[in-house]
Design goal:
two-stranded antiparallel sheet, 12-stranded mixed beta sheet, globular, alpha/beta, 21% strand
Length: 445
C-alpha cells in the first residue's frame, strides 16, 4: 500500500510557490485601521510547524495595536521569531466619541485636555511595552511605527470627490498636542521609520516622540499650514529647529500639509526664503537621501538660492551664503499648487502663476547640479484658474548610463532646458528629452 504523501515531501521550490499563491490570494484581507477582521491566512499556520513559520512571516508583517490590547500584543510577540517578521506596527489611539450634533463644533478646552491626556498616557504605555524589544529582534527590512490618533466619530457620512470617506469639521479643526511636562517616553532603538496620520499633531509633539526613536531614518509627518497665523509660524520654526537636534539620523524626509481646515488660516506670509524655517530646513535636508514635500513647503522659497545665482557653489543671496549641496540625495519629489486653497493661493492670476511655475522648474533644475547622486526627481505643479485645473509635471530619471527628462502639460523653454542640462554635464550619460504633451496651446515654461 502506498504511503500517504505529505505536502512537506514536495520540493522546496514547489512549497514556496504554494505559499506565495495563498499569500497573494489573501493580500487584500490584511490588517486595517477601523476594525476589519484579521486575514484568514492565519488559519494556515495550524497546518504544520513548517506552515506556521512560513505564514507567521506573512501574517505578522503588519500588526495593529491599540492601548487596550497592549498586554495581548506583548504576549503574542514574545517570540524573537515572530518579532523578526514584523515590519510595520500600527498603533491606534482612539479618542472619545462625540454625538453627530457636534460634528461642526470645535473641541472645548476641557475636551482638548481630555484628548491630550488620553494620547499622552497611551504613548507612554506603548513605549514602555516596546522596551522589551531588542534591535536584534527586528526584521532585516526594518521596523516602522505608524501612529494614528483620532476619534471613532471623526469619519463623516459624506464622500469626497475621489469617493473616499471624509472627516468631520471637528476632526479637521482639532489638533493633537501632547502634554510635554508629563510625557515620559523611554528611548527605543528598534524603529527605523515613523509616520503619523489621523488628526494633525503639532510638530513640537511629533519631535518629542521622534527624539526617543534613536535609530530613526525615515520620517513622514504633517507640518502646520504655511500661513501667517502665529501658532503656525511658531510650530514650523520649532520643527525646523528641533529636527536638527532630535532627529539627526533621518535620511528620508516626507513633509505634508494638514487637510484643509474649515476655518481658513491667515494668508501666507510674504516671501522669506532666508527665514529661520527655510534656512534650517534647507540645511537639514542636505543630509537626506530622499526628500519629499507638498504645499507645506514653498518650492520657490526652499530653492531660492538657485534663483539668485546660476552656478553651483557660487555665493547666493541672504548675506553671501553658499549654495546648498545635497551629497547623498537620490530621490526628490516636489508638489506645489497655485490659486487652489487658502493659504496656498500664492498668486493673483494665471499669468503670475505660470511665471512662478517657470521659476520653480528652473530653480529645481539648477539645484539638481548640487545633487551628484540624484537618480529620480519629479516636480508637479498645479494651477487652478477659471475653474480649470492645469498640471505641469517634469520628471528626471538617471539609469544605465542614460538620463531621461520628461515633461507633461508644457513645452520646456530655454531657461528650463539650460537648468536641467546642468545635472547631465560631466556624467558621460546619454541625454533624452521627451515632451509628452502635443497640445499646441500648452504654455512654454
Amino acid at each position: 500500500m502506498n504511503a500517504t504523501l505529505s505536502i512537506n515531501s514536495l520540493p522546496y521550490e514547489v512549497r514556496q510557490t504554494i505559499f506565495a499563491l495563498l499569500r497573494q490570494h489573501h493580500t487584500s484581507s490584511q490588517y486595517r485601521w477601523h476594525g476589519e477582521p484579521a486575514s484568514t491566512i492565519a488559519l494556515y499556520a495550524s497546518v504544520s510547524r513548517e506552515w506556521q513559520k512560513e505564514f507567521e512571516r506573512f501574517s505578522f508583517r503588519e500588526i495593529r495595536v491599540t492601548p487596550r490590547r497592549l498586554k495581548h500584543f506583548i504576549h503574542i510577540l514574545k517570540s524573537p521569531r515572530r518579532r523578526a517578521s514584523v515590519q510595520t506596527l500600527r498603533f491606534h489611539i482612539a479618542l472619545d466619541k462625540y454625538p453627530s450634533r457636534l460634528n461642526g463644533e470645535q473641541e472645548t478646552p476641557a475636551e482638548r485636555r481630555r484628548s491630550t491626556a488620553i494620547s499622552t498616557k497611551a504613548l507612554g504605555a506603548f513605549f514602555r511595552a516596546m522596551t522589551h524589544w531588542r534591535k536584534s529582534d527586528t526584521s532585516p527590512f526594518g521596523l516602522d511605527l505608524h501612529l494614528r490618533i483620532d476619534s471613532p466619530s471623526d469619519s463623516s457620512a459624506l464622500l469626497g470627490r475621489n469617493g473616499a470617506p471624509t472627516v468631520t469639521k471637528r476632526a479637521l479643526n482639532s489638533y493633537v498636542n501632547l502634554d510635554l511636562d508629563t510625557l515620559s517616553l523611554p528611548e527605543i532603538d528598534v524603529f527605523s521609520g515613523f509616520r503619523c496620520v489621523g488628526r494633525h499633531m503639532q510638530p513640537t509633539s511629533l519631535l518629542a516622540v521622534a527624539s526617543k526613536l534613536r535609530s530613526l531614518e525615515y520620517l513622514d509627518v504633517e507640518l502646520n499650514h504655511d500661513s501667517a497665523r502665529k501658532r503656525d509660524v511658531q510650530q514650523r520654526y520649532n520643527f525646523a529647529t528641533g529636527i536638527e537636534q532630535h532627529a539627526e539620523s533621518i535620511r528620508v524626509l516626507s513633509l505634508r500639509r494638514p487637510s484643509p481646515t474649515t476655518t481658513a488660516p491667515s494668508t501666507a506670509p510674504p516671501r522669506q526664503p532666508w527665514s529661520g524655517f527655510y534656512g534650517r530646513l534647507r540645511a537639514f535636508s542636505q543630509q537626506c537621501e530622499c526628500l519629499e514635500f507638498d504645499d507645506c513647503v514653498d518650492a520657490a522659497q526652499f530653492f531660492a538660492p538657485f534663483l539668485l545665482h546660476h552656478g553651483p557653489g557660487s555665493p547666493g543671496g541672504g548675506g553671501g551664503q553658499e549654495a546648498p549641496f545635497w551629497p547623498r540625495l537620490t530621490r526628490l519629489n516636489v508638489r506645489n499648487s497655485y490659486m487652489m486653497k487658502d493659504p496656498y493661493l500664492r498668486v493673483a492670476n494665471r499669468l503670475e502663476a505660470l511665471t512662478h511655475v517657470r521659476k520653480v522648474l528652473v530653480a529645481v533644475g539648477r539645484a539638481a547640479c548640487c545633487m551628484p547622486e540624484l537618480r529620480f526627481a519629479r516636480v508637479c505643479l498645479y494651477v487652478l484658474a477659471d475653474g480649470l485645473l492645469e498640471w505641469f509635471v517634469l520628471t528626471y530619471e538617471r539609469f544605465a548610463g542614460r538620463i531621461v527628462l520628461r515633461t507633461r502639460g508644457f513645452i520646456p523653454g530655454k531657461a528650463t532646458m539650460d537648468a536641467w542640462r546642468c545635472p547631465v554635464a560631466g556624467k558621460g550619460a546619454e541625454f533624452h528629452i521627451r515632451v509628452e504633451d502635443t497640445d499646441p496651446s500648452a504654455p512654454e515654461l
